[in-house]
Specification:
With about 850 residues, the protein is mainly beta. Among the domains are: about 80 residues, no CATH class; about 45 residues; about 110 residues, FAS1 domain, CATH 2.30.180; about 140 residues, FAS1 domain; about 60 residues; about 45 residues, no CATH class; about 60 residues, Laminin, CATH 2.10.25. Helix content is about 10%, strand content about 35%. The protein is built from 12 helices and 69 strands. A 7-stranded mixed sheet has the order 38-37-43-42-41-40-39. It has a 7-stranded mixed sheet with strand order 45-44-50-49-48-47-46. A 4-stranded antiparallel sheet has the order 1-2-6-3, with no helix packed on it. Helix 9 crosses helix 10. The N terminus and C terminus are likely disordered.
Length: about 850
């Protein structure tokens, strides 16, 4: 159940271990069960292990929970624990599960001329050094050598050499030969019996039995078993002709030269029942069955039964106790619950009912219990639940609910100092003091008064009060809901760019039809940035434009933001999939391009609209523009030169084609004279393709020049294009800047830089697309206004409040002082000025304080 990472600490070998065993003490790193980070501190390390650190670890930790009928793998946390265990290990020079000794010869492991494949997974084979052989490296590979290193040559002519690492090279002469090399004939040895040799000693010769034979009367009888040719756990039998047979004793197995104890447990678990018993080795060829830990039974050979490890208070009343196969109790939870190892936790709605029924928040959450479907079937969420004893009146429950929920779950420490997005697509910012505010209203602060309350589909934080300072849907939303998607796109300027592209594309898809549709509408600014693509498709690839538009529509359902968050992907009308990712800050993004959801759940009569900050491009239309224009080049060259008699044998180089026509004269060096000789050759045509970009594209990736490939540098300069180009603009004299978008004359503006700037006491904004006003913040001291034409005066004498710090006090056209917001801001100048750019992006950071 727990993943293990083993770290070796020490190795011990002492008399307490079985013979041949040098068990190893190891530190095992393991983890507590993965669960919600809100309850990980309540979890315990596995039995007999200790907590390494109090910090939680969430890397690659995910737990499984069922939310709304779907099984999800949710990021979580777990403890890191350590446990010391004894790992069975063989001592050096022993092998196998029983750690039996490696083969020896004369008490020397592998005769000291080899390496044993030892260890519990080894097979006890002696891997011999070069020149040695035998099961224990006790023989010389070359049978005609002898000596410790098998490097001495035997010199016997008519006899048997005492060879091998333990041999001395003595010659056992075949009768009637004698002498040190058995190359002399002796009359004394003519009558020697079989299996004898002629031995010379003190000038006399006599018949002696060969090694492994003994004399019985006048004959030599085989006695090879006297030479310890078999394993000590084998029986040796002498056979005729100097042969012998080794047979392992009962309880051992092997070839007789090597015999190892027979371990019945190694085969079919010693015939013990697998799930409930262990097989225990007792002696060679003998074993018995015992019950596993947590099991019991009088006849283990027939199987054991699991003993219940559950007691009355083993688990919390919310959990069910079960005894695991390891004999330990487990507190288990339902598929729609999570646990900390002792108790279980239900969904957010269940937890709110529980918190309101008992504990420090008893009765304080009555008014906050709502949004039944969302809080019980969707998620996971970070839920900000307000202290609210009575329900609020006159506020949409759905609107209120969405602004109290953030997709993804976060404990309080992970919220501090970060920005998040609610399910209602409102931006909020956490301070480092357990307080947060909404970007649309930075003056109202909310406090977390109880944090990190776990639920199966999220984490609950109790806050000081309900979030009511955000603007609910407009009063005309009911009127909008009566219109079709197509009508809404026409009537609302926020969708102007998308509606124009749709209408001008000639697509047959009708968004005023019965539906239902789910439509993703890119913002006007997103489509402006994408305009070079849509303009090309409109003129040159209308079919791609139709596919692009269909990729922003799904039919058959009206998928809300909550429903989008509950799925990983969906199929568009372009038959391509759109993939959804939920960032840790709660924001939805689509596809790998990271297109974000800006506004959602705009309900129409025949569908629902979601606004996104980018364009969803289906893979099937890539590349959108013909950015690659590879060049094919042909080059004529001569083939190989040969004698004209063999011109038909000549051939062209690889990747070339021989051209028709008469052979041409050439010269080649003749061999071996190395003299220049007249010859013949053929003409060859080599075709090569060179990578390059189309006009208006540059770089290795062939990216479009600034302004688009059809109007590079906005037609005010020349783009350094091509595969080796850098995309920079060489501007015409009247223009400058990276995109030739600035007038060279700092007092001019306009498309052709031929209009006079209107800035009076400041620095002119001399870009081609400007209005000829002053650059923000450039007014000279004492002047204000878009054209720095208004003189600043003191307002405090005439008004009860001074101007906002982003406003100036100026004389208006009637000569009266007034507060005017500075360039880039809108408002009455007192008490506040609002950022125009922030207003264009849903009011984020709109109010400057």
């Amino acid at each position: 159940m727990f993943p293990l990472l083993l770290l070796v600490v020490m190795v011990t070998c002492n008399a307490q271990h079985p013979q041949g065993r040098c068990d190893e003490v190891q530190t095992v790193r393991l983890f507590s069960p993965c669960t919600s980070c809100a309850i990980v501190q309540s979890t315990s390390c596995p039995r007999d292990s200790r907590l390494v650190t109090k910090a939680t670890e969430s890397t690659n930790c995910r737990y499984k929970v069922e939310i709304g009928g779907k099984v999800k793998m949710v990021p979580g946390c777990s403890h890191t624990c350590e446990k010391k265990v004894m790992k069975p290990r063989c001592c050096p020079d022993t092998w196998g599960p029983l750690c039996v000794p490696c083969p020896t010869w004369n008490g020397r492991m592998c005769n000291w001329h080899g390496t044993c494949v030892d260890g519990m997974t080894g097979n006890g084979t002696c891997v011999c050094e070069a020149g040695f052989s035998g099961f224990a490296c006790q023989e010389c590979k070359n049978k005609n050598t002898y000596g410790e290193h098998c490097d001495s040559q035997c010199k016997c002519v008519h006899g048997q050499c005492n060879n091998g690492p333990s041999g001395d090279g003595e010659c056992y002469c075949q009768p009637p030969y004698t002498g040190p090399r058995c190359d002399q004939v002796s009359t004394s040895c003519k009558a020697c019996s079989a299996y004898s040799y002629c031995k010379q000693s003190g000038g006399a010769e006599a018949c002696e039995c060969l090694p492994g034979f003994k004399k019985v009367g006048h004959t030599c009888t085989g006695d090879m078993c006297s030479r310890d040719v078999c394993d000590q756990n084998a029986d040796c039998t002498n056979l005729d002709g100097g042969h012998y047979q080794c047979r392992c004793k009962v309880g051992y197995e092997g070839n007789g030269r090597v015999c190892v104890p027979l371990n019945p447990c190694a085969s079919n678990h010693g015939d013990c029942p697998f799930n409930s018993t262990l097989c225990v080795y007792t002696a060679p060829g003998r074993s018995h069955c015992v019950c596993r830990h947590g099991f019991e039974g009088s006849t283990p050979e027939m199987g054991c039964t699991l003993k219940s490890a559950c007691r009355q208070n083993t688990c919390h009343r919310t959990a069910r106790c079960q005894t695991g196969m390891d004999g330990l109790p487990r507190c288990t939870c339902g598929a729609q619950e999570i646990g900390d190892g002792r108790r279980c936790y239900g969904n957010i709605l269940d937890r709110l009912l529980e918190l309101n029924r008992d504990g420090p928040q008893k009765g304080n959450l009555t008014g906050a219990i709502g949004c039944l479907l969302t809080l019980s079937k969707h998620g996971p969420f970070t839920a900000f639940i307000p202290v609210l004893r009575y329900p609020l009146n006159g506020v949409s429950e759905s609107f209120l609910c969405k602004n109290h929920l953030v997709l993804q779950q976060n404990v309080l420490k992970d919220l501090q100092g970060k920005d998040f997005w609610t399910l209602g697509l409102e931006g909020l910012r956490f301070r480092n003091n357990e307080k947060f505010l909404f970007k649309k209203d930075p003056y109202t602060m909310y406090s977390v008064i109880q944090s990190d309350i776990a639920a199966s589909n999220g984490i609950i934080h109790i806050i000081s009060g309900p979030i009511t300072n955000l603007q609910p849907p407009t009063s005309d939303s009911e009127q909008i809901a009566k219109q079709t998607v197509g009508e809404i796109l026409v009537n609302d300027p926020k969708y102007k760019s998308f509606q124009l592209i749709w209408d001008n594309s000639g697509i047959s898809f009708n968004l005023r039809g019965p539906g239902p549709f789910t439509v993703f509408v890119p913002t006007n600014s997103a489509l402006d940035k994408f305009s070079h693509n849509t303009e090309y498709m409109q003129d040159q690839a209308r079919h791609k434009l139709h596919t692009l538009l269909r990729h922003h529509v799904t039919t058959g359902s009206m998928a809300s933001v909550e429903e989008l968050a509950a799925t990983d992907s969906f199929q568009s009308e372009a038959n391509d999939r759109i993939y959804i990712n939920i960032r840790q800050d709660g924001r939805l993004e689509f596809d790998e391009a990271g297109v974000h959801l800006e506004a959602g759940d705009i309900v129409a009569a025949n569908g629902i609209i979601h606004v996104i900050d980018g364009v969803l491009v289906p893979p099937s239309i890539l590349p959108i523009m013909p950015h690659r224009c590879d060049v094919t080049e042909n080059r004529i060259m001569l083939g190989f030169c040969k004698s004209c008699d063999h011109v038909n044998e000549t051939h062209c180089p690889a990747n070339s084609i021989q051209l028709e026509g008469s052979p041409l004269g050439c010269a080649y060096l003749s061999i071996p004279d190395n003299v220049s000789t007249k010859g013949c050759t053929q003409l060859c045509n080599i075709t090569k393709t060179r990578s390059d970009c189309c006009k208006g594209f540059y770089g290795n990736d062939c990216k479009p020049c600034v302004g688009g490939f059809q109007h590079p540098c906005y037609d005010k300069g020349q783009c350094v294009d091509g595969i080796h180009g850098n995309g920079s603009c060489i501007c015409e004299p009247e223009y400058t800047g990276l995109a030739c978008h600035i007038c060279t004359d700092e007092k001019k503006y306009g498309e052709n830089c031929d209009l006079d700037c209107r800035c009076v006491h400041g620095v002119c904004d001399h870009k081609r697309n400007s209005s000829g006003l002053c650059k923000p913040g450039s007014c000279q001291s004492g002047f204000s206004g878009d054209m720095c034409e208004m003189k600043i005066t003191e307002c405090s004498e005439y008004q009860t409040e001074t101007c906002h710090y982003l406003a100036d006090c100026v004389q208006n056209v009637t000569g009266q002082p007034a507060c005017v917001c500075r360039a880039g801001y809108e408002g009455d100048g007192s008490p506040a000025c609002l950022s125009i750019s922030a207003l264009d992006t849903r009011g984020e950071d709109a109010i400057e304080t």
